[in-house]
User: Which sequence fits this backbone?
């Protein structure tokens, strides 16, 4: 499966953004889809995951309540809705797909199919 992110851009603090992760090759429902982000000088952080088994979701504590991921099977696309953007949310956001459970955490070493990322900039 190949995944491609889109939807990044420049947003003011407090604004919202919706990122998309479109898949080709196989149905997204066959995979867990995770969102990661990496800010300059920081480690890549797993922030959200939608599980393949039942479409349930997992969020890192750092984004819980502001981020929401969802799946549109008809479009073979997963979304990441980011609300109340804060300067610390600025990063390159990646989606990744693989046969993982996303239980109790999101580990990048478990994912082998990555997009190239989309930049999110938060600035007034």
Assistant:
């Amino acid at each position: 499966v190949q995944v491609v992110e889109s939807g990044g851009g420049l947003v003011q603090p407090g604004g919202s953004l919706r990122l998309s992760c479109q898949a080709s090759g196989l149905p997204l429902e066959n995979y867990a889809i995770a969102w990661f982000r990496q800010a300059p000088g920081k480690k890549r952080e797993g922030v959200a995951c939608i599980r393949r088994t039942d479409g349930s979701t997992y969020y890192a504590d750092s984004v819980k309540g502001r981020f929401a991921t969802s799946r549109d099977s008809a479009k073979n696309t997963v979304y990441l809705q980011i609300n109340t953007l804060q300067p610390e949310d600025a990063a390159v956001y990646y989606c990744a797909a693989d046969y993982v459970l996303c239980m109790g955490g999101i580990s990048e070493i478990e994912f082998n199919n990555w997009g190239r990322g989309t930049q999110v900039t938060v600035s007034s």
User: Anything to note?
Assistant: The mean pLDDT is 94. The two ends are 37 Å apart (CA to CA). The CA atoms of residues 31 and 52 lie 5 Å apart.
